Amino acid sequence: MTRYLFIFILFLKRYLLFSHFSLLLVVFFILSISCFGWANVKAPTYVGSLACKDCHPIEYENFISYAKKSHSFGSIERLQKGLNQQEIEQCYCCHTTGYGKPGGFVSLETTPHLKNAGCEVCHGPASEHIVKEDAASIKRELTKEDCVECHISERVTAFRYKPLIHGGAH
């Protein structure tokens, strides 16, 4: 870290011709970020649909009972026999919760609570929402644009499903 900071300072001094005071301000800013942990502010992470059940029991039961995506990993399990590992992993982005994102699905062994497409696929990571109990820390009003990550015309045709907003959710 110190080596990169030194190179950065040399770059600023040489090419941007900062005054000593400006250079000192830049160095102070960089050091304050690393020393006070401002750079380590964590984004909300995924906690799984079961974490929603206590506060949202009706929505949770409706989701588990009626939304096909609440059991979406079953599709991967049924089809995996004919697929290689890379093809299986391509299914994870739509059939699991948060795959490829901080705190999202990694594997059945590591993150089994995120193996299906759960509440957080639409509403976003809920770790902050659960701690703060603040509705503003979760996406509440969904639009069609929230669905197009998975529900695109190519997939609708290939997998013969209907791109319904709120279809069978809650």
Description:
This protein is mostly helical and 170 residues long. It folds into two domains: 2-40; 49-159, Flavocytochrome C3, Chain A, domain 2 (Orthogonal Bundle). The protein is 45% helix and 0% strand. The chain has eight helices and no strands. The protein has helices at 2-15, 20-36, 57-66, 73-79, 85-95, 119-123, 127-132, 153-159. Helix 1 (2-15) runs antiparallel to helix 2 (20-36). The longest helix is centred in the N-terminal third of the chain and has 17 residues, at 20-36. The radius of gyration is 22 Å and the shape is globular. The chain starts with a helix and ends in an 11-residue tail after the last helix. The relative contact order is 0.13. The mean pLDDT is 79.
What attributes does this structure have?
single chain; 170 residues; mainly alpha; Flavocytochrome C3, Chain A, domain 2; 2 domains; 45% helix
Overall structural domain count: 2
Count the E strands. Answer: 0
* SS element count, helices: 8
- CATH superfamily annotation of the largest domain: Flavocytochrome C3, Chain A
SSE-based structural type: mainly alpha
- Could you please say which CATH topology of the largest domain applies here? Flavocytochrome C3, Chain A, domain 2
Q: What sort of overall outline do the alpha carbons produce when their principal axes are compared? A: globular
**Helical percent range?**
40-55%
Integer-rounded radius of gyration: 22 Å
User: What is the N-to-C order of secondary-structure elements (H for helix, E for strand)?
Assistant: HHHHHHHH
Unreliable spans: none
What is the CATH C level class of the largest domain, in words? Mainly Alpha
Mean pLDDT: 79
Terminal CA distance reads: 49 Å
Main sheet: strands, sense, barrel: none
In the CATH hierarchy, the architecture of the largest domain is Orthogonal Bundle
Approximate strand percentage? under 5%
